[in-house]
Amino acid sequence: MDKTTLQSTLESYFTWFHRHPELGFEEHKTTARIRELLVQAGVEILDAPLETGLIARIQGRPGGPVTALRADIDALPVTEAAGLDYASEHPGCMHACGHDFHLTALLGAAILLREEAETLAGTVKLLFQPAEEGAGGARVVLDTGYLDDVDEIYGLHVMAALAPGIIALSPGATYATVGSFRILVKGRGGHAAEPHRCKDPIVAAAQIITKAQTIISRGVSPFDPAVLSVTRVLAGTTWNVIPSDTLLEGTIRAFSVEKLTGIAENLGKICRGAEESDGVEIEYTWRINTYSTNNDPALTEWAAETAKTLGLSVVPYPPTMGGEDFALYQQRIPGVFLNIGVGSPQELHNPGFIANPAPLSAAAELLAALGKGAAARLARNSRPPWRNFHAG
Ligand SMILES: [Zn+2]
Ligand SMILES: [Zn+2]
């Protein structure tokens, strides 16, 4: 398929997906449409046990290496206000993170790879992943075992502020380790006129919120990025009653599990201090939701070269405190997560976010080149030649 036809085909797919956003693990229409378009393109769909999302395969030389390309397919509970003539038709739901762009680009890569299957040195698996936005889709996909034979994996995310078609990538961790916490402060409620007969959980919670701000500002190097935000406070029912309890929730983010764990443990110490000083009881729990992405340095260099060969501009990717569950694949499979500019007037997750569809065919070509090129390289020689430079 020539580039102009590919672009117009993908734009028509893209506007359909943009009109029909679905939340994590509810992507039934999206999955059905992806299936239909893959079948139309003659692409084999594997029998992976997934309720939503799917895994397809382009088989080249049997017994060759296996590479994977991943796109996420879920949308967000955001009411769209971007003024598009192909706006979301599902009230309260919007493709505000550009996953419609990702999955359309992967459909384009499927079309291109299908045409080139005879010259493919191995197998390329096409992974349309459900529920990236915090619902654990990557874990569900890994648990199917359908990626157990994959040698390398590549994925792509739109970048709002970058000009359309520019590729941004960097080695190492580019997306943060994301944790969440919950603090339930249990006091003793009563009459607001008699605070001395109560154990006021609001005052204790307020101390915790304020003191928590010092964990990073006073305890973590300014050169070591970390975030702690209290994002939810629930307490009380009216103005003259001291409530019995107060709930706090929030997030901790850093670029390593160790750093995040240290911050979370310090928050626990602040909670214990509040128990002591305010006479309340505190239930404190925290967990890691997503690990940092981890771009293999040699493969990152190779991916950048591949993009340049296709005539794309490549810039370094500034690390983000956002999370990305592509990290879970990278814990088992070497790979690269890269970004493509879509020139949006608003940031990701904003109701005014707009992914310019102009670089869809370029994204498709890049994904296809990564899947195919990695298979060829792995078949030739299991290591890229410049890896020797890093060996010492
Ligand atoms: Zn998102
Ligand atoms: Zn996203």
Short description:
With 392 residues, this protein is α/β, with parallel strands linked by helices.
List the helices and strands and how they pair.
Blueprint: H1 3-19, H2 28-40, E1 44-45, E2 54-59, E3 66-72, H3 99-115, E4 123-129, H4 137-143, E5 152-159, E6 167-168, E7 177-186, E8 190-191, H5 201-219, E9 226-235, E10 241-242, E11 245-254, H6 257-278, E12 281-290, H7 297-309, E13 314-315, H8 326-332, E14 335-341, H9 360-380, H10 387-391
Bound molecules: zinc ion (ZN) (2 copies).
One zinc ion (ZN) binds at residues 97, 133, 348-349.
Question: What would you note in describing this structure?
Answer:
This protein is α/β, with parallel strands linked by helices and 392 residues long. It has 2 domains: 3-173 and 292-391, Aminopeptidase (3-Layer(aba) Sandwich), CATH 3.40.630; 177-290, Alpha-Beta Plaits. Helices cover 36% and strands 22% of the residues. The protein is built from 10 helices and 14 strands. The protein has helices at residues 3-19, 28-40, 99-115, 137-143, 201-219, 257-278, 297-309, 326-332, 360-380, 387-391, and strands spanning 44-45, 54-59, 66-72, 123-129, 152-159, 167-168, 177-186, 190-191, 226-235, 241-242, 245-254, 281-290, 314-315, 335-341. An 8-stranded mixed beta sheet has the order 1-2-4-3-5-14-6-13, with helices on both faces. It has a 4-stranded antiparallel beta sheet with strand order 9-11-7-12, covered by helices on one side. A hairpin with an 8-residue loop joins β1 and β2. α3 packs across α9 and α5 runs antiparallel to α6 (257-278). The protein is elongated and about 80 Å long. The two termini are 44 Å apart. One zinc ion is lined by residues 97, 99, 132, 157.
